[in-house]
Amino acid sequence: MNTARTRATMKDVAARAGVGLATVSRVVNGDANVSEQTRSAVQNAIETLDFRRNDSARLLRQGIAASIGVVLDDMSDPFFSTLNRAIETEATLRGTLSITASSSNDTAHARELIQALCARRVDGLIVAAPGGLEQSFLQEEIRAGTPMVFVDRPPEGFEADTVLSDNFGGAVDGVNHLITQGHRRIACLSDGSKLYTVQQRIDGYWQALRGAGISAVPQWEHADQSSGTSLADWLTKMSRWSVQERPTAIFCTNSRASVAVLRALRASDTDWPALLCFDDFELADVIRPGISVVAQDPAAIGKRAAELLFSRLDGSAVGSQGPARAITVKTRLIPRGSAESPTI
């Protein structure tokens, strides 16, 4: 259920204060030609209704630069830098300033950044909320009239405009590709992240195995941080398993896990299993054979997120206060050789 309430309007303020719209406008704009009694009544109505003036649509129509805030993870990550460039392009086309901040996946810092941008009255926000962030304050900002779009991870506990990759479906496609190559013992390795995206990919991994009638083997799944055992140590342990037990293929849930696995495999003396990674990464196509990946489309995510936000700001949504919308951006399987050969 959409829990966002309708934002109070100047008409609501006028009705509560018992004055006309023109009077409310004069008070809001600081006009001195208003009696103290009337000004007090209007101010009380504003506070009671939590009214905030929203000049976004008027500014956009007049061609006056508005501003949006963008809070993402580490901007050195190619996924987020590409996503941000797409947002900036859409904002520039609309004469809007895009103010970008990096949370470094730190919940306290993310909260500070979002609150600071809201305090500066940006016209809207695009947010990739870190895992573990207590999000009730975000819901309050939306209720107060700040349009917000979530990217990469959905909001927790309430509904809002969201643009996500098809993490579950992409993982199913990737693991099914390994299965079609003849693999039945497929490991799933992650960096231990508690993010929604990683969990969706792990769920997709298990779904693909079940769909192929492959019995689940819990030790095939390993998360680096949560178990206290590094990916390198796990791979060393795996190399000691019998040939009948050892996975013949590895599915990595994100680029960080992929790079860690590649380094560990490069340093080992064992034959490499087939490898398929969720999310493309730099040099994946340069290694020989190239690393097969399930590629996301961060440019499309950024573009669609900006379009959703501006549709709220310029009133072109089905009612700018309409229900939350969710967009899922498809992933793309790119076979490069590492998943198509038994060893690398």
From TrEMBL:
This is HTH lacI-type domain-containing protein. The lineage of its organism: Bacteria, Bacillati, Actinomycetota, Actinomycetes, Micrococcales. GO terms for molecular function: DNA-binding transcription factor activity; transcription cis-regulatory region binding. It comes from the Bacteria. Keywords: DNA-binding, Transcription, Transcription regulation. Residues 8-62 form the HTH lacI-type domain. InterPro entries: HTH_LacI, LacI/GalR-like_sensor, Lambda_DNA-bd_dom_sf, Peripla_BP_I.
